[in-house]
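I am still getting used to backbone structure tokens and would like to learn alongside you. Label the sequence line and the structure token line clearly, so we can match residues to local backbone shapes. Would you write everything just below, so we can both look at the same thing?
***
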Amino acid sequence: MATSFSSAHRLYVKSLYRRMLKNELDWVVRRDIWRGRAMMIRAEFERNRDVTEPRALAQILEKAEACLASKLHPDPYIPPSMPGGTKWERNVPPTIAPIYDHTAAVHH
């Protein structure tokens, strides 16, 4: 069955799903425990998969955004080598270009 929703809507729902999974992973580091919670999130999305009425869908998405906002982790996990991580640009490799351009200097 083809849906009448736009690709922007699908991208928004995917983004919401991924943000909810990421937030749960911020709270629960152990993957075996997180997996159960991820399955509950997936079940919630699957439960509302067949909703086609725009107003009902807007209410569901608004409720999901509010739930996510209320459960956001105050200090989310950032991988060490990503921007904002503890190792970000700690040991920046030196530039390959010469520090002093000897070819442009005038010799006496």
Remarks:
- The chain is about 50% helix and 0% strand.
- The radius of gyration is 24 Å.
- The CA atoms of residues 97 and 103 lie 13 Å apart.
